[in-house]
Design goal:
Blueprint (H helix, E strand, L loop, with lengths): L1 H19 L4 H9 L3 H15 L4 H41 L2 H4 L3 H17 L4 H16 L4 H6 L1
Length: 153
Amino acid sequence: MENVNETTRQNQFIRTVLHGIDLDLDEFMSNLIHSQPYENTMYAWIINLYTKNVTVHDAITEIHRKRIQSLEQFSAKSTSEQAIAKKYKKVMRILDSNTRYQRLKHEQKIITKVKVYALLNTNLYTYNSIAAKIIKIIMNQFYDKKSIPQMLS
């Protein structure tokens, strides 16, 4: 009988919190059953707060705080990824017009692109300086010293 009362209290807590954060119970449960990431996260937060005996009001406040924090982290990550993608396109535009890069084999180009991403992720260089560094790397890594004078002529 104690388990039934506990389950009833937990379900009431979940319903009240979901109502407090303006989520429809039926839609939430349907998405939870289908393992939707947002609902799984929300459910884990709610159950965690319930097990800590947090009041409904405090649970709603905490979930609002966590939602905002998650959105800010996602937004910052998304913005950072967009900036890197934009710089990557600029670097690749420079490299695509470079004859040394154009002459690389497919596998060598893949290795070069990985190096471009590595340099971009450091956030230490401009796209122009990355392109210049990559061209030097190409010369040192993929061309022997005898072939360089022929390429320059």
